[in-house]
Fold this sequence. Notes:
Helix content: 25-40%
Number of strands: 17
Largest sheet: 9 strands, mixed
CATH architecture: 3-Layer(aba) Sandwich
Number of domains: 1
Amino acid sequence: MLTLLGPRGRFCDGLSRRSFLQVGGLAVGGLTLPGLLRAESASRSRTSPKSVIMVYLSGGLAHQDTFDLKPDAPPEIRGEFKPIDTNVPGIRVGEMLPKLARCADRYLLIRSITGLADEHSSFQNMTGFGMNQTQREGKPHAGAVIARTLGPRDPAVPPFLDLFPTMQHKPYNSPGPGFLGRAASPVKLDGGDLESMKLQAALTLDRLDDRRRLLDQVDRYRRQADAIDGKGVDEHYQRAFDVLTSSRLVDALDVTKEPEKVRERYGRGSSKHLGDGAPMWNDQLLMARRLVEAGARCVTVAYGFWDTHGQNFKYLRQHLPLFDTGISALVEDLYLRGLDRDTTVIVWGEFGRTPKVNKDAGRDHWRFVNGALLAGGGLKVGQVVGSTDATAGLAKDQPVHYHDVLATLYAALGIDPHSMVQDVTGRPSPILPSTARPIERVL
């Protein structure tokens, strides 16, 4: 880890010099920050403004009760919700999503995703491969691929930031960098790390003096390094100091800096986990938007718990209003803040739910078809890609393999999904299978 030599005293606000300089885990996986930045710098463009927010719905959201309702199906298929019109003629969504209905012209829906496995994990959505293959072959998280390929947008902000909490069901948790190695790991902003990075609201003059002395120590270290090496500190140490002494990342995480009206628009939610999955913490959706504005390349969010084997409709009545509020706010914010050309948002889970409602008024796992919502990124929004049959059980028109969804995401970022990335030994590996194809009609 990157630490300064010298006394290990504590500042009066409770932070040690060591913990302050680590900045919430910026020394990733035992690799020092300068080493991480040095490893990132190989063969990439730093000019692209593109970024992505990936929202993972742990447990698998019922597609036929949200974005693909079947009102003409028998009661045991159609369930309890009715479709409502959106602001795009011909596109309808579930009645529990009125705010998303009002901004359907700013996102697109894919209703015919195929190729998924019946497994409760984030691996398919985040790597493009199933859990077993990902673990066996070390397939990397898409965020690691994006960060490695495009590099940082801002030298003071790490390119890949992971807001996934640590969930009880381990396969829900964020996959690692795989064969790309520790240098491609995300900066994980969860729990204590997140709290330690927030500036405390009422800093006394003594606290400010302590932090000023810390920065003076950084400056002395830099001057000493310059004296030892006539060429000065290399660019990677310089970037490391930029990250450690910049407030941009910390400020981006502080949603209290937003106007109260904006926070209310997103909805608050709670950091309390639901089931063995993720919380519905809408502050994280707002953090994600603030992080890409600050210069992050990829931000990942795990949102909610949707494994509704029992009491599906009661559960969705309770939780879909907050989902509707948070996701619609994120989508609309892309346009309000001029991010819609360069920032892509994708919202999806690991599979759909059974067409037939079970004896416990729930819907079980259904791997045969699922859906996704995409917004921004310069995509052709206000449309629906694909359709399902009369029971929402199988893809009917234009089946879209989940590899194609990720290929579309990469293409929106300016990355050729058929290109190669080098593993830690320098061996090239394909980003996605050769069969993956971007959905041309949305690009």
